[in-house]
Amino acid sequence: MLEKKDHMARVIINRPAQRNAFSREMWTELAEVMRSLERDEGIRVVIITGEGATFAAGADLTQLAVQKEDKERHAYIALVEEALKSIVNFPYPVIAMINGPAIGAGCELALVCDLLICTEETVFAVPAAKLGIVLHYPLIQRLINLVGLSAAREILLLGEPFSAVRAYEMGLVNRVVPPSRLEEETFNLARIIVANAPLSVKGTKKAIAHWFSFQEEEDHSAMEELEGNSFRSEDFLEGLNAFFEKRRPNWRGR
Q1: What pLDDT does residue 220 have?
Q2: Mapping DSSP to helix (H, G, I), strand (E, B) and coil, where does residue 9 land?
């Protein structure tokens, strides 16, 4: 869903029955929406939020489960990266208005936004270790760049949910507010940005995006091999089965 008003656009992740878990189609649609907003010269800030009580509860694991071939996985990762980079490269600031749990892909989506504001009740997690997979390396880079090495280790190696207060301590989010004030506070930030000099805001956003792209120009082939091996492992299948069957996984380390 898309709303526009007063130089601001609100993009709403709208799949509440699945707690806004991202499907392939949703990643494609997000990239298309961001490209359309980029062509709209009247938009100077974008707000991304979730419909209902969840920001986004991760990727659609039913789609991940059927990606048996490397080419399918690479195609999916390229789809996700295109959507995330459409936010990183968007010429004006993008604010994540995090209205509920931001898990896995939901947390990864928030990471690429310029400002993050959440409620006191928000829970975050990147549970790749609970599924037996190695996260896509550019996402690990972004997390380290945002919260630092020590906090990134905590998030990734534990894979456990953590609170809005802990997210603020790590530097993951900019503001933590009561649920009743989330929309007001978010739009206040958006109005401040809109009132600032467009060339200054746009130039700063471009400089930050350039810094991110410079970080990502390295050769990641060894990291991609680690990631691919994890998706081909017995443990990944066990992690998925355990998730769907709501039981503890029996890891074999292979």
Answers
A1: 59
A2: strand
The DSSP annotation for 197-237 comes to: -HHHHHHHHHHHHHHHHHHTTS--HHHHHHHHHHHTSHHHH
**Contact by Cβ (8 Å): 209, 88:** yes
Q: Give CA torsion, residues 226, 20, 93, 6, to 10 deg.
A: 170
Looking at the predicted structure, is the pLDDT value of residue 234 above 90? Answer: no
Distance from chain centroid for Cα 203: 23
67: phi then psi, degrees, rounded to nearest 5: -85, 85
Closest by CA position to 173, among listed 2, 51, 27, 55: 55
- Give all domains of the chain, ordered by start, each with its CATH number: 2-181 (3.90.226.10)
* pLDDT for position 251: 73
Question: 229 is written with which tokens?
Answer: 């091996």
* CA–CA distance, 176 with 168 (Å, rounded to integer): 7
pTM score, two decimals?
Answer: 0.86
